Amino acid sequence: MNLATSVLAGERLALARLLSKVENNTQEGLATLNELFPHTGRAHLVGVTGAPGTGKSSLVNQLAYFFRHPPEEQTSRTVAIIAVDPSSPFTGGAILGDRVRMQDLAGDQGVFIRSMAARGSLGGLASATASLVQIFDAAGYEIIFIETVGAGQAEVDIARLAHSTIVVEAPGLGDEIQSIKAGILEIADILVVNKADRPGVESTERALRNMLQLGHPITYSQKQSRSSEKVDLLQPQTGSPLWIPPVLCTVATQGDGVSELVKAIFDHRQYLHDTGQWEQKERNRLKNELDNLLRENLVARWRATIQKSDYQHVLDSLVARRISPHQAVVNLLDGSSPGQS
Amino acid sequence: MNLATSVLAGERLALARLLSKVENNTQEGLATLNELFPHTGRAHLVGVTGAPGTGKSSLVNQLAYFFRHPPEEQTSRTVAIIAVDPSSPFTGGAILGDRVRMQDLAGDQGVFIRSMAARGSLGGLASATASLVQIFDAAGYEIIFIETVGAGQAEVDIARLAHSTIVVEAPGLGDEIQSIKAGILEIADILVVNKADRPGVESTERALRNMLQLGHPITYSQKQSRSSEKVDLLQPQTGSPLWIPPVLCTVATQGDGVSELVKAIFDHRQYLHDTGQWEQKERNRLKNELDNLLRENLVARWRATIQKSDYQHVLDSLVARRISPHQAVVNLLDGSSPGQS
């Protein structure tokens, strides 16, 4: 039985072996990825992002626990968690994170947790994450959480991998002008104020609602003014109903609000399917992945063609300020000798 | 008089015009950048990074004000501020930020402030920032602050542009396991606990010192045990004295601690010059910039060679899961027909 077959059969050891092979960029890993790809496309990919200290990891643990042990009338689902840390190119923080989590979900065969620290480049991180998502998807995990730290471009890139994106906040981050939030809000399908037992939760919730209102000025105020009715606002361009990101409060350490959050995740999936946006997201997601891989490959192939000494020569001219960075690029790609402009 | 000459002569209008031309990627902008490059290499580039809510912008404003109006015995210096917001690809937050800052430093001809929101890709952001740095450097600005939001890979990339990197924290961000901090600490030359009039400042300061001690286990404890003496610890590899990042407390809104921070910035510059690391940083900085530009150019050149319909055909096969992402890349780069593996 080859590796792909074992992974498709749900063997955890084979899965772990494949994850390592793919992370180490081996030929066997790549070949197995290719074999598995036709079996992907079934999982619900849920991105979870937020600043450090918002309690994202505890929340994801609680969500995973809830999916594994739902109330009686619901079906239990298998869960994979990919914890991506784009900010830690130096230390082994990710591994420490794993240990802490394991205590909650240890021994459950329906849960798989994998951490990834940053590697060389951001593009590399995004495409490595995409590969891990494919493996878990092919292996039959039904919900895949992609958890990222922070709120930078890295998170935006990784959020593009997900069908549903949850942005986690916590009370007490101050009320300074935070243009960062305006940006991150626009990728949020669901907003969570975690640590809702702390002081300041009302003002954080209000701030988030205000920002949402800035983003959806008319629709959001209509929704609020008749919040008891079912609202079916339409998107101007497509005519499909509009998704208005709910703002939910949780206390992850107690499990408070987790069932409401799970309901919102299911609602969002239903919304995507009903409006045809699921297919659109799949296409964007795969296009994004293709473009990342193309970029990496173009650079790697070019690197393989160039003499190291030629590169050093051009770099020397640049450092001596005989040529500018743009001229250096022209010299390297067009092969004119360094020093000319 | 051409644009480059006007910029070198210190004309603000010409400078503003060039910044726009470069941001819009015009040919004239590029040509002027090439002309200006030999005049760069004099400015001290200071990166300032930290999570939202730490008061980075106020701190940078205060630093700029101090450099403009130093105590009597010191020389005043010209200051440029580039505020980079990698997290805001969507909204005009950066512009709002500008307005707020202008009130502090308005009318001073020795200060120039420019905000940049994210554009297409992170690589694009880093190289656009690098171009802005070159322009300000050539125009004679002595201190150039590169201020970034957050603590992700984007910030690490942009910190690579700087000679000295200041990481700003604030009390009360919680004491959860924050592997993110361990990462960001390793790029810090100077650590600042801003908002030091708030409760919790001692524990934040202690946490930072503990993390530093994890990073420099032996050296740091030696330094602490004889903190009254001048310490000259040596780097294991190069034999130069070791720089131990100081931890400083500030209240930016009051200006408290700003003069000590300015002193630390000067000390770090002196240290870089004394140990030959300034030249090393310049080389790494320019190599990094060259590699970013190479990546962008390789992708742009390849894009120009490919038929849009061929790309769409491969993407369609990918979305239908007839080929995997890696197979799609091989098809596009090697020209075999989609569907083959």
Helix content of chain A: 40-55%
Instruction: Please give the count of helices of chain A.
Output: 14
Query: What global shape of chain A is seen?
Result: globular
Distance between the termini of chain A: 59 Å
| Beta-strand percent range of chain A | 5-15%
Structural class by helix and strand composition of chain A:
alpha/beta
Largest sheet of chain A: 7 strands, parallel
Q: Which stretches of chain A are poorly predicted, pLDDT < 50 over at least 5 residues?
A: 88-100, 174-180, 224-231
Instruction: Write down the secondary-structure element order of chain A.
Output: HHHEHEHEHEHEHEHHEHHHH
Q: What strand line-up does the widest sheet of chain A have?
A: 3-2-4-1-5-6-7
Largest interface: A-B, 81 and 81 residues
| Multimeric organization | homodimer
Mean pLDDT of chain A: 80
Number of DSSP strand runs of chain A: 7
Task: Supply Rg of chain A.
Answer: 23 Å
3D structure, described in words:
- The structure is a homodimer of 341-residue chains.
- Chain A has 341 residues and is α/β, with parallel strands linked by helices.
- Chain A has 14 helices and seven strands.
- A seven-stranded parallel β-sheet of chain A has the order 3-2-4-1-5-6-7, sandwiched between helices.
- In chain A, strand 5 (164-169), helix 8 (179-185) and strand 6 form a beta-alpha-beta unit.
- The longest helix of chain A has 29 residues, at 277-305.
- At the A-B interface, helix 3, helix 5, helix 6, helix 7 and helix 8 of A face helix 3, helix 5, helix 6, helix 7 and helix 8 of B.
